[in-house]
Amino acid sequence: MDASMPVQTRTTCPYCGVGCGVLVTARPDGSCQVTGDAEHPANFGRLCSKGTALAETLSLDDRLLTPRIDGKDADWETALARVASTFSETIAAHGPDAVALYVSGQILTEDYYVANKFMKGFVGSANIDTNSRLCMASSVAGHRRAFGTDTVPGTYRDLEDADLVVLVGANLAWCHPVLFQRLLAVRKRRRQKLVVIDPRRTSSAEYADLHLALKPGSDVALFLGLLAHLEGANLCDKPYVSAHVTGAEAALGEARGWTVERVAAETGLKPADVAAFYYLVAATGKTVTVYSQGVNQSSAGTDKVNAIVNTHLFTGRIGRPGMGPFSVTGQPNAMGGREVGGLANMLAAHMDIENAGHRDLVQRFWQSPAIAERPGLKAVDLFRAVADGRVKALWIMATNPVDSLPEADLVRAALEACPFVVVSDVTAATDTAAFADVLLPAAAWGEKDGTVTNSERMVSRQRGFRRLPGAVRYDWEAIAEVARRMGFAGFNYAGPDAIYREYAALTAFENEGRRDLDIGAHARLAKAGYDAMEPYQWPLPAAGATAEDGDKRFFAEGGFYTPDRRGRMLPISYRKPASLPDAERPFVVNTGRVRDQWHTMTRTGTSPRLTAHYGEPFVEIHPDDARAAGIAPATVARLDGAHGAVLLRALVTERQQPGSLFVPMHWTDQVASNARIGAIIPGNTDPVSGQPESKHGTAALSAFPAAWYGFVVAVARPAVAGIAYWAAAPVAGGIKVELAGQAPPSDWLAFASELLDPAGAGAPDATLLRYSDAARGRERFALFDGSGALAALVFVAPEPVALSRGWAAKQLGTVPDVRGRASLLAGVGASTQDDPGAILCSCMNVGVNQIAAAIAGGARTVEAIGATTGAGTNCGSCRAEIGRLLAASEEDRPAAAEAPALVA
Ligand code: SF4
Would the CB of 18 count as within 6 Å of ligand 1? Predict the structure, then answer.
């Protein structure tokens, strides 16, 4: 915290699309405290575990603080000149489509606006796409097909006002935790039903009145059947449809054959459950259908969105309190990016690239020399174009495509072969930055200054509370500097407020109610007003609305943004996912998030608290499948896809359905040997949205033939190169690493010495103690530095090492006597000292052993456990897991064995 900065700053969380307001308070010691902003309308003071831990992720360790060219430090002038000249030369030689930008829902609206203006208005190519393509492009496409524009009709308040909330492919409890907490708060006050449609029994499903664990990818069949049922139940809102909707008859024509029995056969659900869902929706006027990546990340993602939207248009349940389809975005500024045209097939301010009138309007507004005439390359195609040489200069900003895109090894090869790669990021320690010819140091959360838009169209300020460290600069500034060096006018911005005013003016330019996105009231907002801006929901036209207006909804009275101002019901036909399991790859691979991690872990992966929940990459496997493959819980499993293979810890659980596997998207080569799940996901995309089908890869499953397992906790990172399986995570004062290998080393002492480097420069007086039980395959080592403090512990066994990771981490830096050293090697203290066990509640730092003790002490409800231990009393995201422990204790079976924390 910088002493010259304000004592308290109101800003916004940089993670998910809920867009929570946070208060950052400077402490006298230079650190800061992060709490929820009670006045922010998205969260009213709540934060989830990730938001709560924000202050722990501000370290400058690993930060990129100066530009680098070809791996060597450079000054900005040289770096900018290199980028500008290479882009100009490439355009001159090969045309504007030979250059591209790949940006991110992590950057701010002002950064996005300048990047989009640079490419589409001045370079003259629409080759700018964003990692939001992987997140919610299908929702954008579905909205545009149905509404004529990319409008989210409702607000968060609708989820609270609804009598029925249907979550489709959305594990809100983990991925949008504060929004889920708002739902749970409603359930305490009144009866509200929750239906969860998800192949997995997620934490959200634990709360559901009805969980429909349908076959992966069969959602369209379910919603076609729902539309047919709604017609049969005479629930068409005829006045609304006849006044405001077209296409109903064609849509019904596709839906009518989908009887309950046919839907059940296609989805694998019980007919009674399908019927129960249909009756519930039919009987409940105030229904909100919330959808997320389970819908979007599909080769039929756009059709899924429109199948859902059809049911709302048909019943007129849209734009009214407690009713509507509702897309929740994954990233903090996915919506802001959509608004300013961050997608390759959009223009700016919700205008269409295919619309000549819109192109003319935007070009006149920008007074630009060019305007992109056609959509650019969408993410997957963009990297294919890099691979085959059509794109020769690429600027990647705040994202990590080597890990996050499908066919990720091909992406890596494409970057390796690309003649010129620029990467703007906060760290050089990413799998993508390794391929940068020019690395540009970008501002991180806490330093950035601008705006973001959350899933309900709420625009909030993200404010800096730390000075830019080193030579770090804002992303918008880097783009504007390059644009100026390429000879482009119109990029002389004094600050983000000037960019915001220009963007606001564009939304109002020749609008007159023709476009949904209008924030013209801010076109002349002074810097002081920008600095003090309160969260507001758009639209906010120059006349007729104020920031203080209540919830703003669209389409209750029609007024769609199609040429005839009517909403469109689409004739949707069901089709199966693009890649189906077969004899070679019989499992469906579903990817997603875990509760405490964010994307590729460059921030959340630095917090010991957040990595305590899931500390290594894993695959969820149904017990029958694990048994058939000879995979025991907590051993290592191998997945072979069409494009690569990964090694993951086996989490055997009945929450997974047979034939399906779930793997988190977060782990990279920076923290694990071979866990980039993007490497085995095929690059199948939705034909309309271009969004990859990340929820439906296929793979073969087998046991990794481990001859030994190991666990290391150390003050310095061990040398793990060459070990078949490793996964690292931070602990307080060091690092922990899980290991597994096939052939055991011929000399364990030499192995440990190489692993820990006791004679290395930092530990010339180190002592390495060994305990060996060769007959049982057990090896243990303890490394003490010159002062006698524990620098590392290594435990090796033929099976997954059973040792409390929390206890082991706490021993680092302790100075035991001779007997204590022996105890360490014996792991004695692990069983005799208080051991919290694997951390379940990250906010309050409560482990499974503490919760088990509370249950043993008589706590019989989640609330009682919270009262005893504090677990689940902050963000509440762990309450479903606590409930599972309670249920397991009643069934007298060790629920903790389901977690990869089995080895903790
Ligand atoms: Fe951040 Fe959590 Fe709020 Fe999402 S729910 S914005 S991750 S605090």
Answer: yes
